[in-house]
Specification:
The chain is α/β, with parallel strands linked by helices. The chain has helices at 45-53, 57-65, 67-71, 78-82, 86-89, 95-104, 111-122, 135-144, 157-160, 167-176, 192-201, 211-229, and strands at 29-33, 126-131, 153-156, 185-189, 204-207. The longest helix is centred in the C-terminal third of the chain and has 19 residues, at 211-229.
Amino acid sequence: MAELVYAPVLGTGSRKGLEVRVLFWAHMIILFDTDGVIIQREMYFSQRFSEEFGVPLEKILPFFKQEYQLCIVGKADIRVELSKYVIEWGWKKTVDELLAYWFSHESKINEQMLKEVKVLRNTGVRCYLHTNNEKYRSKYLFEKLGLKKYFDGAFSSAGLGFKKPQQEFWSSIYNYLDKPDKHSVLVWDNEEGNIHSARDFGFKAELYSDFGSYVRDMKKLDGQINLCKK
């Protein structure tokens, strides 16, 4: 079963400054990538840790290429796996403190996108998060950081047992959503490989680069959807 975090339905609110005619999107389901779309990552943990503590990347990257890949599909516990590396990395504190350092530096919220999500949900569009993340950071983002307040739910690779760009990642979400019309599902992601994968599955998918391009692309999509209705 997907790792799904339910969020309360938001109020009607104001539509001032609305850039797209979301009224016609009410039948749509939009899946927003977490890191790179909703969370603005300025630097990867490996880069930050290497620069701040003087640890060569060659000592850090093996973890991300091996054990971490098991963690993000729920087949290993990152607390256990990191404990094998902390001495080599020269970390003097606990594993939990290392995770706190990691998570806190990758938690900058894209407030413009959250406002857009609120507008969409206020008009009936179902909005979900999707992410390649292990279980502790998923919980941190959705609960402690509070993202679950803004979305109808969230799908994590750790809960699904598959990661992007695997087709099983999208099929698991599709099944959990009770198999809607695939053309009614729109995916936003900041990695081209994930966009191609989502499209191969049958979903609509768009590449996110910045907020301005997102608004322009949504306008184009809005026009295409309305044209199909005429």
